[in-house]
Each structure stands twice: as structure tokens, then as C-alpha cells.
Amino acid sequence: MTRPLLALSTAAALAAATGGAAAQQAATPLEEITVQGQGAGTGQTDGAPGVATNDGYVAKTTRSATKTDMPVNETPATINTVTQQQLQDRRPQTLEDALAYTPGARVGAYGFNPRFDSFFIRGVDVTYTGVFRDGLRQYSSPSGMFRLEPYGVESISILKGGASAIYGASSSVGIIDVISKRPTDYKFGEVEVQGGSFDRKQLSFDLGGPVNEQGTVTYRLTGLARDADTDMPGVPDNRVFIAPAVTFKPSDDTKITVLGEYMDSKTGGSMFQKNSSVDLTDKYGNVIKDANGDPVTGSGGAEKGIEYDPDYNGFTQKQWRAGYEFEHDFSDAVSLHQNFRWSGISTNERFGDADKTYRGQVKETFSSVAADTYLKTKLQTGPVGHTVLTGVDFGHLKYDSRIAYGGTTGNPDLPNPTKQHQTLWGVYAQDEIRLDAWRLLLSGRHDWLDSKYYVPSSGKPFNPDETPNPYYVPSSTSKQNKGAWTGRAGLSYVTPFGLTPYVSYGTSFNANSGTVINDGSVAKPTKGEQAEAGVKYAVPGYNASIDASVFWLKQTDGIIYAVDSHGVNQQKQLDFRSRGFEIEAVGSLDNGVSFQASYSYTDTKILKLSDVTEGNQVNSIPKHAFAIWGNYDFQSAPLRGLGVGAGVRYTGSSFGDDLNRPIIKNSPRAFVDAKVSYEFENIDPKLKGLRLQVNANNLLDKVEQVCSGSYCYFNEGRKVIASLRYRW
């Protein structure tokens, strides 16, 4: 890649960086020089153009926090970022893998389950409600959740704290904003082949650059095809993925970027291990008995071995999205922004038991529209600077779901579908205030929810001339019309030596899609609040930062599946609180060393669920966890071009159910990952752009049982992936 730079004199550059008076003077121009380097998505991580800037492992700015370009180090909130360089070094295969080194993230709670990206942040399940794509909520339905292809991702921003004030319906702990790869203003390309464990075969490509000489039209085309198995019989890992993007710049003041994606993937409909039965006990250790006085049993320790039919086991999913990001500057102070996306999913899941006594099938389709329009205004009131956002956004979701069980051959007869239509409107305002070293963030919002949930009749309708059918349930429609106010406030102080202390408070509101509680009622919206205090330190003279924070959050009416005091698995709404401490250090240094290290302490407490769980810890959430990853690229001969990396992920002990039974308590565990790479241009300059990389996930092949929600699973064993990439 070749880009011209116009050098500034040292004095003028320093003045511009520090905001001094000399910044207003003309810089002394030097001769034009040419810099050879690699930009976003091609090595050096500049971040998604106009959305984020990163330098190696260190995030500099991200729009995910405020929808503006407020520097990460100045923002009064915790922001963890998985940068492009981290993605390239660790090569995660799922969103769970990508978040594995993020403080406060609980991944792997359901063992090996490639159907969905399921994870917790600070004890909050954000699987359905916390994932955003390019600043817009990624809607989902009960069995329809977007599967992430990391190769199509530029970076991932994890914004912690109630963010509903500017994002609307979202998790009480914040949002995970996945930033898509997008067009660049320089030409590049890469093609890569992969092979590895479980007969993995993959071909991928990434191309981009200007379409015309003026550079007013640029493009990006990213795609891959994979054929692979897993260590579970009847559970493939196949997919075809394509993501086109085009940016139009008709003038210096106007830009529109069109983003698209299509993915067709197939894995297993079930991959459950065998579970033994144990007597259920209450929190006092007493064995729970049924009405006949017999002990109530539930899932306990698991033994290695499948509990499904690999010959009738498939989960195919087709997903697509298309949208745009529009920006227009009316002046240097006022600009209009609009983001829009239409997306949809079609799933077909088949599963049966190992004894081939029954079969089940789930077919589901859903589509959604998300749109966000806001005006950004910069103004000055005396010594106080403001960046004001005023906006309105809209979201609509509709889905059909059909579930059937029965029979030992063929597909079960699917009933009429359960349906839901959900519409959300929101209006919001935010003021980003700057006074000397102070940064004050204030935002408020109101949302309106309109939801209809339709359940078809089941069984044979009642006929007075026949014997009544005891299994007949008439059709029903449940409606919700709700409104909610949410807000966020944060204050930070930016010192000249890189230290930024901050405090923040935010509330959240989320409408639960596709959820009916066991008593037949539609779930109430989930609400939450979080308070936080922390400090950020941008280490002077180094491309490194250290962030630490303490937090307290409370969530009401969260959705969970829980075993009640009689051993019955019920869908309930949970009130709980979480509090803790997190610290993270990241850096990419000039000597070739890059690192990421984190520790988190998360203490959860159930406030309302059932009479025997109040005061217990939320299941599968460890109090202690840490992760460390380091990478070193050799800088001098004879090893120049060689890169090595390794990491350890530690998860402390946790309970396997909300009853906190010691019999299925999860023991502490640690997993090791590793990476080695080599740039062949150090052998021969003609081989510039050719790179070999080998990644090993769970290098020591440690397979552990993990129990969540009273059921037990196993994690995936060692996976080794080798890739050969050519980049130009």
C-alpha cells in the first residue's frame, strides 16, 4: 500500500497535538514522502475508517461508546476492544472465542455448542440482547441468532454499563458492538488457504480499494468457504460467507457506505453429552422430595459420550443483512447521520436421542429492520465545548417458529407457527461537554414498545359430540404496550500525564422477543442499572494502556431457564445484582512485543427467583478469572519475520445451578492457546506478502465438564489450524 504524507515541522506538529496557539499558524511543509505500510484489515490496525482507530492491540477511538469520535482514554466508561491485530494473531472462530481474553466475559458456559454465540458479561447473559452490529441492534428470535464470521470483522468494542440512553433496547450490562470490514482508500488484496484439525479445509479472500481514479467510489469484498468436521460425530462446521461493501463520496461533505452479508452454515442440531442423575437438594442440603416422598432427580456429573442421534442431527442456517451508513456535513459544526439495516435468518434444526426413540425439529424464520437517525451539533458556550446528539431510532422484528416432536423415522409433523411482531420507537439526546480537562457525558431517552405474540391452538378442537380432548389449548394473542425512560451520566478528568479517573451511572430497558413464561404470560421487559468508578492510564511514551474499574449493577426481570424446588425446568424472570472489579493492560511496543492481560472479580447474588435460591450466586459465573496473551515478532536476523505467541485463560470455580449444589460445582480450570507465524520475504524479497501461521486453541487438549442451568456439557478439545496467506 502506498500513501503520501505531508510532513509538518516538529514545532507545528507538537502545537497541533497539544492544542497550543501555534496550531493556528501555518505548518512548514516539507517534501512529499511515500510511506510503505499496511492499513485496516491488512496488518497494521488503523481501525474501520470513520468508525474506530486502533494501533496494534491498543484502541484509540471508537464510535461505539458515544456515537462520536471521543478518545477511548477520555470516555467515562469501561471500553474493552478486540482489535484487528488481536483477531489476526489469535484467529478466533466464533464471537465467544474472540471475547475469551476480555475481562468480565464468561464464555464456554455451555461447553462445545457451535449453534450459537452464548456468553455473559459481568454475570449478565447478553446472548439475545447485547450484540450490536455497526451500532445497530442485531435482533434475534428464540432459535434464530446471527452467527459471527470473525474473518468479516474489523474489530469488536465492548461498552460496559447501561447504554439504552443512546442505543435503546439493550442489555443492562452494555453492548458488544461488532464492527464490519469496510472499504479503504488504498488498494489491497489477500487470499488464504487453511487446513487443520477434523479435516478442516477453508479458502478465504479479502479485496478492496478505489474503483475510479478520483477515489470517490471504493469497495471491499470479503468471503470464505469452509468444509470441516468437529470432534463430535454428526456435527460439521461448514459455511459459505460473502460480505460486499461499497462507499460513495459524491462530495467532500457527503458519504454513504453500503454493507451487505450472506452466510449459509451447517452444524449439529444437538451435541449433548450423557448426564447422570443425582438427587436435588435445596440450599440447606436437604434432599427435595416429590408428593409421593420420592427424591427428585436432576442432571449431575456428565460422562464422555453422546446422547443424540448423529444420523438425524443437523442445524442449517441462512442469514443475510443489507444496509447503509449515511453522513452529510452541513458545516464544520452540524452533520446528519443515518444508519439502516434489514436482516433475516432462516433455520432448520433436527435432533433425536441416541436410542432413536424420538425425533424433534425446529424451523424458524425472522426478519428485522433497524434504523438510527441523528443530528450531531458542535457548539461553544463560553469556555465550554459541546457535542450534542439528537436522534430517533426505529426497530421492528417479526418471526415464525414451528416446533414438533415425535416419531422415530422421517421428520415430525410441524404445527402452525408461533408468531411475534415487535416494534420499538425511541427518541434521545446526548451532550458531550468539555471544560479544560473535564469531560461530562449526559444522555436521556424514551422508548415506546408495541408487541403482539400469537400462539396457535394445539390438539384437536373441542366437539360437543365427541369426548373432549384434554390436550386441546385454544389459540391466544398477548399484547404489550410499554414505555420507558433511560439515562446515562459520566464524568472524567483527563490529566496531562495520561491518567483519567472517571465515574458513571446508566440505566437500561430491553423488550424480550419470543419469550413466554411458564404461566403463559409474555415476559416483562428487562430493566437494569449500573454504577461504576475507574481509572484509565495511557502510558506516556508507549503504545500501552492500563484500565481498572469497580462496578455495581442490578437487573430485574431477566430471562433464565431454572430448575425449581421440585426439579422442574421452568422459564422464569430473575432479579439479581452483580458487583466486582476489573483490570486490563494492553500494549503493542516498538520492540515487537504485544500483550493483553486482564483479571476480573465478579460477585453475583440472586435477589428474586424462587424460595430456595434467594441469596445464592448466579449459576456458572465464576468469581475469579484472568487471561494473559503475549506475542513477539522478532526484529533482527536471523529470526526476523518469525512471530510467536501464547496465552492462558483461567476460569475460577462456579456453581452448576442456581440451587448452588456442591455436587455439580464447576472446578477451576485453565486453557492454553498458542501461535507461530513466519513472513517469507525474509528468505527472499520476491516472496513478500507470503505468510504461514499456525494457531492452536486449547493446546494441551484439556477437556473439562462444565455445568450451567442444572445441565452439564464438555468443552471442545484441542484444535489446530494452519494457514498460508498471500497479501498484495
UniProtKB/TrEMBL annotation:
Tell me a GO biological process for this protein. siderophore transport
Cellular compartments per GO CC: cell outer membrane
- Is Iron one of the keywords? yes
Residue limits of the TonB-dependent receptor-like beta-barrel domain?
288-699
TonB-dependent receptor plug domain mapped to chain residues: 72-174
SUPFAM superfamilies per record: Porins
GO molecular function term, any single one: siderophore uptake transmembrane transporter activity
| Protein localization | Cell outer membrane
Signal peptide (residue range): 1-23
The yes or no answer to whether the keyword NADP is present is no
Which InterPro entries does the entry link to?
Answer: Beta-barrel_TonB (IPR000531), Beta-barrel_TonB_sf (IPR036942), Plug_dom (IPR012910), Plug_dom_sf (IPR037066), TonB-dep_rcpt-like (IPR039426), TonB_sidphr_rcpt (IPR010105)
Q: How does it sit in the membrane?
A: Multi-pass membrane protein
Which keywords fit this entry according to its UniProt record? Cell outer membrane, Ion transport, Iron, Iron transport, Membrane, Receptor, Signal, TonB box, Transmembrane, Transmembrane beta strand, Transport
CDD domains, alphabetized: ligand_gated_channel
NCBIfam families noted in UniProt: TonB-siderophor (TIGR01783)
Family indicated by similarity: Belongs to the TonB-dependent receptor family.
Know the name of this protein? Ligand-gated channel
In its UniProt entry, the species of origin is given as: Hansschlegelia plantiphila
Q: Which gene encodes it?
A: foxA
